[in-house]
């Protein structure tokens, strides 16, 4: 294990800087206890970069990320930039950094923490015990296809191309099978093969790759059926693998099974161990600066980074245990509190996690 890691920290917009501050404090504590130095260097991305640099992804930010061992990202976006042209939208910075870093595999776990069962909008018997992960292809499909706007005989016309190459599909399917081998060995590949040609190729490649993993069960679901089943019986799922746009939608739906999108982390991985780690939730500009945002998804993203990119499994386990202990003790931010009057703030939640973590790492 290396003793010094360079981490690119991209706080972004809205609540990003607040939650990132707590996550970096957790990382610093891990470094102190484990004898590791984390050199955290900040860069701008999203709306703040548009305002400051005139682009959602400055060249120096991409360079910083490429030279780092891993990247921590807060959140981007907000109504301030919603009417901007496409190349000046905060989300364009996200797409750009994913492409620029070769981050083709997005892993989004949705695990029900026992103490938060009542926070879900679904019945406890439906969500209790949910433990699934969505593996989303991240650099292909309709988000990266050619986009056109032009005048037609019946008014303005818009086009978005959805293109997938066989190799792109194969590499993400293999990631899903490799993940499943460490879990319950079940993969559901999600497509729209009854309508879309790109989905028919997707299913064909999934079948071919699946033959290389005889120990893992492969099944297929259409995306609309999967969306329904996620609400009806989410415990049937172990690993869901799907294309970019479907994965964007289904992973957010899966996140809400657990009661709050503010609780869930994600990893976007390149070939090898390099990755970008971020909470699933957005920038929540309506609560930015109020000190009430939930930092736990970002802190859990630190745990994913420690495990997947830095090989620090023990420290990752400790961070996750610290979060679990704090929740078991009944501490809640407003988004997961049944009694909002007793909710705690961002800084207090971060401190409680660090207090627990300090004891665990003793």
UniProtKB/TrEMBL annotation:
Q: Which cofactor does it need?
A: Mg(2+); Mn(2+)
Entry keyword Cytoplasm: yes
Q: Which InterPro entries match?
A: IsoCit/isopropylmalate_DH_CS, IsoPropMal-DH-like_dom, Isopropylmalate_DH
UniProt KW keywords:
Amino-acid biosynthesis, Branched-chain amino acid biosynthesis, Cytoplasm, Leucine biosynthesis, Magnesium, Manganese, Metal-binding, NAD, Oxidoreductase
Site note Important for catalysis applies to 143, 192
GO MF terms listed in the record are: 3-isopropylmalate dehydrogenase activity; magnesium ion binding; NAD binding
Residues reported to bind NAD(+): 78-91, 282-294
Q: In which pathway does it act?
A: Amino-acid biosynthesis; L-leucine biosynthesis; L-leucine from 3-methyl-2-oxobutanoate: step 3/4
| Catalysed reaction, written as an equation | (2R,3S)-3-isopropylmalate + NAD(+) = 4-methyl-2-oxopentanoate + CO2 + NADH
Q: What is its main location?
A: cytoplasm
Membrane-crossing residues?
A: none
Q: Which family does it belong to?
A: Belongs to the isocitrate and isopropylmalate dehydrogenases family. LeuB type 1 subfamily.
Write down what this protein is called. Answer: 3-isopropylmalate dehydrogenase
Q: Which organism is it from?
A: Brevibacillus panacihumi W25
Q: Which gene encodes it?
A: leuB
């Amino acid at each position: 294990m290396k003793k010094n890691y360079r981490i690119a920290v991209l706080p972004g917009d809205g609540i990003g800087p607040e939650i990132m501050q707590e996550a970096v404090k957790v990382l610093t504590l891990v470094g102190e206890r484990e004898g590791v130095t984390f050199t955290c260097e900040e860069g701008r991305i999203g709306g703040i970069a548009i305002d400051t640099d005139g682009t959602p992804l400055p060249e120096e930010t991409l360079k910083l990320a490429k030279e780092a061992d891993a990247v921590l990202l807060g959140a981007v976006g907000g109504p301030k930039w919603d009417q901007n042209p496409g190349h000046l939208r905060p989300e364009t910075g996200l797409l750009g950094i994913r492409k620029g870093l070769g981050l083709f595999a997005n892993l989004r776990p949705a695990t029900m923490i026992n103490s938060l069962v009542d926070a879900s909008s679904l019945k406890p018997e439906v969500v209790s015990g949910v433990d699934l992960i969505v593996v989303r292809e991240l650099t292909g499909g309709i988000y990266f296809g050619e986009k056109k706007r032009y005048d037609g005989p019946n008014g303005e016309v818009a086009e978005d191309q959805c293109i997938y190459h066989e190799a792109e599909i194969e590499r993400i399917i293999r990631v899903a099978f490799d993940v499943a081998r460490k879990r319950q060995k079940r993969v559901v590949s999600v497509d729209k093969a009854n309508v879309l040609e790109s989905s028919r190729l997707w299913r064909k490649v999934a079948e071919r790759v699946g033959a290389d993993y005889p120990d893992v069960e492969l099944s297929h679901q259409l995306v609309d059926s999967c969306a329904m089943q996620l609400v009806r019986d989410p415990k049937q799922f172990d690993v869901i693998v799907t294309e970019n746009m479907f994965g964007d939608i289904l992973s957010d739906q899966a996140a809400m099974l657990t009661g709050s999108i503010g609780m869930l982390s994600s990893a976007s991985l390149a070939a090898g161990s390099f990755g970008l780690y971020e909470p699933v939730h957005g920038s929540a500009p309506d609560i930015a600066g109020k000190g009430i945002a939930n930092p736990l998804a970002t802190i859990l993203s630190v745990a994913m980074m420690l495990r997947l990119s830095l090989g620090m499994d023990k420290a990752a386990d400790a961070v996750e245990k610290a979060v679990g202990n704090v929740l078991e003790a009944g501490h809640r931010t407003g988004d997961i509190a049944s009694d909002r009057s007793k909710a705690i703030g961002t800084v207090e939640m971060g401190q409680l996690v660090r207090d627990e973590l300090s004891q665990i790492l003793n």
